[in-house]
Every structure is written in C-alpha cells, then in structure tokens.
Write a structure and sequence with these properties.
about 260 residues, alpha/beta, TIM Barrel, two-stranded antiparallel sheet, binds zinc ion
C-alpha cells in the first residue's frame, strides 16, 4: 500500500474565535494529499482577554455528519488548550464531553501579558519578558498533565525576534533544557510549528532540534497551526527534511491519546 501522508495535527476551524475556516475544504485537501487521518484542534483558552471556547455540541454533531459523508478518511478530535494559572484545574470541564485524540498545550498569555503582542516585550524588557515566557511554559507543563503535545515552544520568542532580530534562542538554553527534561519525563511530544518557524531563521529551528535531541528528546509532532485552508500542512516537506537531518527518524501522531510513529 502506498505510504499515507502525515496529517496536520494543529489546525483551526470556525470553532476557534480567530478563524472562520469551514472544515470541509480542509477535509477535501487532506484527502487529496493522501492523509489517512484528519483533525482540527480549536482553541479552549481563557485569559484576561476575550474568552475562546468551542461550541462542543455543534462540533460533535458536525464531525459525526462529516464522518458519515467521508468514510475513507478517519476524522479525529482535538483541542488546543491554553494554560492559564488561574483556571488550569477547571479548564478540563470545557472539553470533557469530547472523546479526544490529542490535546495540544499552549501558553499564549500570562496575567496582563499577551505574548503575541510586542508591546509587552517593550514594556517589560525583551530579556525579562522572554524569561517570564519560558518560565511560564515550564510552569504549564509541570502543573498540567492532560496533554500529549507542547505546542509552539517559541511562540513568544518569535514575537521578541520580530521586534528585535538580535535576540538569540541560545541565550535561553538552560530554561529550554529544563522544559525538555520535563517533557521527556512526562512522555510528551514537542511540536515543530511551521507557522512560527517560518518567521525565524532556519538556524533557530536546527538549534532547538539539536538541543532537544541532545537532551534525549525523540518525540516530535509537525504541525502548521493553520487558521486558513492555504496553510494546511504548510511547508511540511521543508521542515520534515530539517527534522530528519537533525537525527530524528519518526514523527508522532495520536489516536485516543495513544502515540503512533510515522517514519521519516
Ligand atoms: Zn497557539
Ligand atoms: Zn493554534
């Protein structure tokens, strides 16, 4: 049998507050690309900013209808959970009715800081804000257990880099190693987010991958974080090659939260 294409495991649809992309065009694209599975991972994230939640009932109904209509591709269920210290213990109640295949864990905000917005890096200082950001990720993966994948570890770093391109990921080696050690000990996967990587030099991605590998990390997912159809499996070939060149020989995917390997 012809090898299937790895499905994208970080995809936003109209169930996310920041996307209006219907699911069907994604699904058609995944089938055209010879994916065996398809998944969306919409936001469940409650910060001081606008609350992002999924209409679970509509989502489950739509997935059921689509699965009946498209029997040749298995539709999986996922979410992107945003860690926030104030409510990480109760956030589970928002997705408990979904029989999930994968949970991507993210850190987008802390208190009054929005890591997407360069304003806060300017306000609190670049280095200081990056230290807060990486400590926040360490806290998230230490406190929270109900996830399979840490999404976009360099989401806040990318904001800092776009503000000041002299910032270097190497300067955060110690905290990155601490983060990797917790992920490895907890058997979680690290996501290579092609959207975030595309804003950063390729040397940045290679540095992260080498450091993760040296620390003993082997579990990776490759995902686009698409909010629109055009970005489904965005630059997968390019980053799959980089990952392979850094010594990794498989990528992970998840079904019913169980880990499967896709050889590369
Ligand atoms: Zn995210
Ligand atoms: Zn996302």
């Amino acid at each position: 049998m012809e090898k299937f294409a790895l499905h994208d495991q970080h995809v936003h649809s109209h169930y996310s507050a920041d996307s209006c992309q219907p699911i069907i065009p994604y699904l058609n694209k995944a089938r055209e690309l010879n994916c065996r599975y398809f998944i969306t991972t919409d936001h469940i994230d409650f910060s001081l900013g606008p609350d992002w939640d999924i209409d679970v009932k509509s989502y489950l109904e739509e997935i059921k209808q689509l699965q009946d209509k498209y029997p040749d591709i298995k539709i999986l269920k996922g979410v992107e959970v945003g860690y926030f210290k104030k409510n990480y213990k109760t956030i589970k109640s928002h997705y408990q009715d979904i029989d999930l295949d994968v949970i991507n864990l993210s850190v987008h905000f802390k208190d009054d800081i929005d890591y997407y917005n360069p304003y806060y890096f300017k306000k609190y200082g670049l280095e200081n804000t990056l230290n807060i950001y990486f400590e926040n990720i360490l806290e998230a993966i230490t406190n929270f257990d109900d996830f399979q994948v840490l999404s976009h570890i360099d989401y806040g770093f990318k904001t800092a880099y776009l503000y000041d391109s002299t910032v270097k990921i190497e300067d955060y080696k110690d905290i990155l190693v601490k983060i990797f050690k917790v992920l490895i000990a907890k058997n979680k996967a690290l996501e290579i987010n092609t959207k975030v990587q595309s804003f950063l030099p390729v040397e940045h991605t290679i540095y992260l991958l080498n450091l993760y590998h040296e620390t003993g990390g082997r579990k990776l997912t490759l995902s686009s974080d698409a909010h629109q159809l055009e970005f489904y499996r965005y630059r997968f070939e390019k980053y799959q090659k980089i990952i392979k060149d850094c010594g990794f020989n498989y990528l992970c995917y998840f079904i019913k939260k169980e880990e499967y390997h896709y050889p590369i």
